[in-house]
Amino acid sequence: MFLAFVLGAIMPLALAPVYFVPVLFISFTGLVWLMDGLGWGPKVWRQAAALGWAFGFGFHLTGLYWVGFAFLVDAESFAWAIPFAVTLMPAGLALFFAAALVLAHRFWSEGPERVWTLALSLLLFEWLRGHILTGFPWNLIGYAWMDFLPIAQIGSLIGIYGLTLLSVALFAAPAALISGQSARARLDRQGVFFALAHLGLFVVIAAGGALHMGKLQRDGVEGVTLRLAQASIPQKEKWADEYRYRNFDLYLEMTRADAGPGNRPTHIIWPESAVPLFLANNEAARKEIGEALQPGQILLTGAVRFDRVEEDGLLVSKVYNSFHTLNSDGAITGTYDKFHLVPFGEYLPLASLLSRFGLKKLTEGLGAYSAGPGPQKVAAPGTGQVMPLICYEAIFPGRMSDGERPDWMLNITNDAWYGNTSGPRQHLAQAQMRSIEQGLPLVRSANNGISAVIDGYGRIWSRIPLNQRGILQSPLPKPLPPTLYSRFGDYVFWAICMVVLLSNLFWQRIKAKKVSAC
User: How would residue 421 be classed by pLDDT, with cut points 50, 70 and 90?
Assistant: First the structure.
């Protein structure tokens, strides 16, 4: 279990910001060999579960350590919870790895096909991790390729889950060189061919991706110039009463800033909750925005929205984490309400129970946020239809549209909670994959974090680094033709899984016939 923990704990080195991909060969090859050592028996499934849990716990412990930094923003209230947050969350997520290895052991074999048994089992439960209890598909192994975009391009066909499935099989393939249980392990000639075939597959994927990216053109949408404002306001000052209007004025100043002759922005973009007021209910604030905008300019911004809705004959107050578009008259022309809320950040799960133990959400003072109705496009004059993604909504693949394909995606976020850690870099990498999957440009505007303009190949055109205040002006990249993944989503991934499963069963049946013939 300790060795499994170590093998899991080194895996985040392959993800942003380090991208030391070779470490995954060590982790997944070692995991296969550890599984080989379990043998068979009525109680071995418990050992497989323990092995998987230790591996998953190590992976999530080192990959999600940055979550604890959010509790330091209001250290007086929340610092006590840091040990629980940084251990209990990884411990819970590790249960998916435990279940995956129990399933894998049920179909384990001595030959090279056990590599795919592991890959299929892991990916089934990784998919479940991304969907159960609102889902949290953070740090999927396929994101290791975001520093090598030619391979990442396969995401436009099979998505991040499909890329992760192939990647796990590749990184575990060296284990196929050895077959049999530990007491009678031997070099497997079929395994040599098996490992080389996997390497060859990724050479083909890289070549195909390079050919796909060979069409790269840095063409922007005609007549559109974006201005992203990253104020880099410390989270402790974001909602403090004494800084609230100063923060608002800072964004107004960045909006009015002179960009020089011939470089006038057409669309101004502010990040998540940039306006520290109920903008829809504050006419004075909207008037100030209208005065800051030049005629014809459009503001796209995050803001908290307050509303009263009727439920069961009663008026109920609701607060939303929202996105607005405003014209140069200061009028709101479009609104989207975030629907995928962050547990413990925007609402407290099982609030009636957990609040008895003194637990509360990190964003105190506004009550629990309400969820919007779901994915929704918003008209952004001059650019077509934009798909807003607020905060970590950008980490969920296949949820980019409410039907018809948008023209571009806009991820407004605030990663100031997590300091100078790997968290904001991992967040950016996942946004890049959404661009590849959909073949759409994605603009990322952060209060603090990494603001960036990303084209449909996942290529970053320009960015504002973490912890830096600044203004970024850029064209809006043109969208690419619809991708296979944008048309069919995870159905492509499931089709691959079915083909691999049937191939594995067919291979095992042939081997069984050979053994019986002997």
Answer: very high
Same domain, 133 and 271: no
Total domains in the chain come to 2
pTM: 0.93
* Structure tokens given for 326: 């405003």
Same domain for 253 and 155 = no
Question: Which CATH number covers residue 329?
Answer: 3.60.110.10
Residue with tokens 């004494």: 242
What residue numbers bound the domain in which 436 lies?
221-482
Coarse DSSP helix, strand, coil percentages of the chain, rounded to the nearest 5 percent:
50, 20, 30
Crossing angle of the two packed helices 189-213 and 155-172, in degrees rounded to 10: 150
For residue 193, give every residue at least 6 positions away whose Cβ sits within 8 Å of its Cβ, in sequence order, or none.
Answer: none
Element (H, E) at 419: none
Positions annotated as catalytic residues are 272, 338, 391
Distance separating alpha carbons of residues 152 and 174, to the nearest angstrom:
22
In 64-136, alpha helices (H): 75-78, 82-106, 114-129
The answer, yes or no, to whether residue 402 has pLDDT greater than 70, is no
pLDDT exceeds cutoff 80 at 325: yes
